[in-house]
Amino acid sequence: MTKILIADDHPVFRQGLKQILMSASESIIVEEANNGQEVLNKIYKHSYDAMFLDISMPGRNGLEVLQELKRVKPNIPVLILSMHSEDQYAVRAMKAGASGYLTKDGEANEFVAALQKVLSGKVYFSSSVVEQLISGFGKKGDKAAHELLSDREYQVMRMIASGQKLKDIANELSLSLSAVSTHRTRILRKMNMKSNADIIRYALKEGLVE
C-alpha cells in the first residue's frame, strides 16, 4: 500500500484531492492534516510514502514546515500546493527540498502524474522553474531584492503589495500584529525601501502581484 498525507487547511480541497488519488489506484491510502503543526505531529509518529503540502496554511507556512520536515524525514517526497503559478514560489520550494510544485487549480490527472513521478524518485517542476534555479547559481551578488527575504518575509511582502492591512495579514497567518510589523520592518530594511508604496511599486514591476 502507498500511504499519502495531504496537508491543507481547506477541507473541501483535501477531500477532492483524496478522491482523485484513491480513484487512481486501489493501493493508495490517504491521511489528512489541517495545519503545519498537525503535519509535524503526524510525521513524527507515522511513515508516509509522499506528501501534498499547501504553501499557505495558517501559522507555520508550507515552506517552513517543509524545511523542518526535510530535517526530520529527508527522504519523503513532498509536492507543494499553491494558488500561485509564478515561478518564484516554486524556486523557493525547490531550494527547500520539495520534489514538485502544483497549482491547486490543476487538472485531476496532473496531481496523479506528479505523485507517480515523485514516487519513482523523480521531480515535478516546470522547465522554466528549473532554468530559473540553474541561472541563479553563482550569482549571489546580483540577486533581486525580494530574493534576500526569508520565506515568511516574502509571503508578507506579497500580501502588503496586494493591498492587505497588517491586521488582516496577522489574522490570515495566525500571527500577532507585532510579529507582522517586525516582518514589515525587516522587509523594508532588506529591500532598501521606506514605505508600503515602495513595496507595491516594486512588486508590480517584478510581476510578483497582479
Describe the structure.
The protein has ten helices and five strands, in the order βαβαβαβαβαααααα. The chain is an alpha/beta fold and 210 residues long. It has two domains: 2-135, Rossmann fold; 141-206, Orthogonal Bundle (Arc Repressor Mutant, subunit A), CATH 1.10.10.10. It starts with a strand and ends with a helix.
CATH class membership of the largest domain: Alpha Beta
**Share in helix:** 40-55%
User: What is the approximate shape?
Assistant: globular
Strand order of the largest sheet: 2-1-3-4-5
Low-confidence spans: pLDDT under 50, at least 5 residues? none
- What is the string of SSEs from the N terminus onward? EHEHEHEHEHHHHHH
- Total number of beta strands: 5
CATH superfamily of the largest domain: Response regulator
What is the fold named in CATH at topology level of the largest domain?
A: Rossmann fold
The total count of helices amounts to 10
Topology of helices and strands:
Layout: E1 2-7, H1 11-24, E2 28-33, H2 36-45, E3 50-54, H3 62-72, E4 78-82, H4 87-95, E5 100-103, H5 108-119, H6 127-136, H7 151-161, H8 166-173, H9 177-190, H10 196-206
Parallel strand pairs: 1-2, 1-3, 3-4, 4-5
Helix pairs in contact: 1-5, 2-3, 4-6, 7-9, 7-10, 8-9
Features:
alpha/beta; Rossmann fold; Arc Repressor Mutant, subunit A; 2 domains
Summarize this entry quickly.
52% of the residues lie in helices and 12% in strands.
